[in-house]
Amino acid sequence: MSVTFETHPSRYRHWKLETAPDHARLTMKVDEAGGLSPGYALKLNSYDLGVDIELADAVMRLRFEHPEVSVVTIESALDGMFCAGANIFMLAHADHGFKVNFCKFTNETRLAIEDASANSGQRYVAALNGTCSGGGYELALACEEIILVNDRRSAVSLPEIAYLGVLPGTGGLTRLVDKRKVRRDLADVFATLAEGVRGARAVKWGLVDAVAPRSRFAEAVAERVASLVDPARAGRAGVALDALAPAESGTEIRYRHLTLRLDLSRRLAELSIDGPQGVPAIPAEAAALGADFYPLRLFREIDDALLRLRFNYPAIGLVLIKSAGSLDRVVELDRALWKRRGDWFVNETLLLMKRVLKRLDLTAKSFFALVEPGSCFAGSMFELALAADRIYMKSGVDARIATGALNGGALPMGNGLSRLETRFIADPARAAALAAGGTFDADAALAAGLVTAAPDELDWEEELRLAIGERLSLSPDALTGMEASIRFAGPETMETRIFGRLSAWQNWIFQRPNAIGEHGALKLYGQPQSPQFDYTRT
Amino acid sequence: MSVTFETHPSRYRHWKLETAPDHARLTMKVDEAGGLSPGYALKLNSYDLGVDIELADAVMRLRFEHPEVSVVTIESALDGMFCAGANIFMLAHADHGFKVNFCKFTNETRLAIEDASANSGQRYVAALNGTCSGGGYELALACEEIILVNDRRSAVSLPEIAYLGVLPGTGGLTRLVDKRKVRRDLADVFATLAEGVRGARAVKWGLVDAVAPRSRFAEAVAERVASLVDPARAGRAGVALDALAPAESGTEIRYRHLTLRLDLSRRLAELSIDGPQGVPAIPAEAAALGADFYPLRLFREIDDALLRLRFNYPAIGLVLIKSAGSLDRVVELDRALWKRRGDWFVNETLLLMKRVLKRLDLTAKSFFALVEPGSCFAGSMFELALAADRIYMKSGVDARIATGALNGGALPMGNGLSRLETRFIADPARAAALAAGGTFDADAALAAGLVTAAPDELDWEEELRLAIGERLSLSPDALTGMEASIRFAGPETMETRIFGRLSAWQNWIFQRPNAIGEHGALKLYGQPQSPQFDYTRT
Question: Which of A189, A451, B107, B334 is at 20 to 30 A from A308, Cα to Cα?
Answer without folding.
Answer: A451
